[in-house]
Amino acid sequence: MRQMIIYNMLKVMLMCSLVIAVYATSAINHNPEVDAPQEMSKEGAAEYEQAVKQTKFYKKMKGITDEIDRTIERARKYLASGDTNMLSQENSNYQDFLEQNNLTPVQDAYLSQVYVYSGDLYDLLSIPKIAENIEDKVHRKIVIKRALNIAEYDMRECEICMSVNHPNVLQTYFVYEAMPESYQKDNQTIVWLFQEYLENKIPAIYNEGSVQEKALKIQHRTIIRDVARGLSYLHKNRIIHLDVKIQNTVGTYSKSRGRIIYKIIDFGFSRILNEEEPSIHIKNRAFGTDPFRSPEVYLKSIHGYSSDVWCLGLLAAYVGNIHIASNRWAKKKGISVNITGEQIPINADMGHVYEKFLNGTIKIAIGPEYPVILAEFIKACTVRDEKERPTVDELLENHPYLQSNNALYAEEVTGDVEKYTI
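User: That's the sequence. What structure does it adopt?
Assistant: Structure tokens below.
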């Protein structure tokens, strides 16, 4: 009897209605690359930046973000001194300030804080990119991200976000950098990114047989194909993302295309490779998130195009509700869910389950309830030797999973699926 290795199953869901799922299938043939927006020249980018700085909205946001930086600076000092009363008062003032300025905090992590701005529409329309983008959206909001930029890690999020322009990649309207006093001594800066609002997240858990699961089966191929198209664009521009995962795959309804368009977000770990360079060795670093990090990243500190392909395969497994390791299963002692690349020395007393999975000692079976075409796709993406993995373009052009226009489970489940493992 076939042995299935399951450690703490993590089930994923797609939060969308069946109404959305129905029209998604009818629009699945649309190729966003056909009408991808034109790249902006360096001269055009410089002119755009200057034009943005002259708008009332830019000046308004600069004042708001400067105050947020000052507030966080004061809070850091109170925290360091143990003054809990002042820290509590500062936090209360901070919440009031956000509310007064139409900002809703949606993420507060070590490396970044994210807010949704839902203020005056006329303010938003003063920025050309925003005016053009929100015309196609249902929700007229923007996202404001405050990210820690650590010089030691060569983080290039601002540069990459402002250089990319593709339907399946998050659009950034403008950015600027700040250097609060307490960050200077650590050679760190704060970058502020003003980006498009995406409303359709893929949550982590859903119930089998639920409406969400049924909708997911219709949307599954669309999600993976959209992400693959985004990766293809990035790789053509020598950008490796290094953190493709469910949390960094978010959709937004496009009125012009009549469906949800899924996009890659968060370029905090991304790198720009040199010409003819398929990968880069970053000593003692392993950027990404478990359990999406590839064997070469985790075990050898090699980061490249193939690493994104591995992530794409794991994404297909997660979105497909394949039995796969949870973060608890994937972690070793001391590894956080989303670290800044630090490698943890191997502890001989630990089980090393994740490491065994990466080197192929332990494999996870894809059950016979899943279509063979999906199993083949995941297996192709998760070849342990990065040099043997197909490129994203090869998958888009040749793999039947991305070529077909059927819903995920429309194919008949046949064949010997036991041999398909990751």
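The first strand starts at residue 103 and ends at 108.
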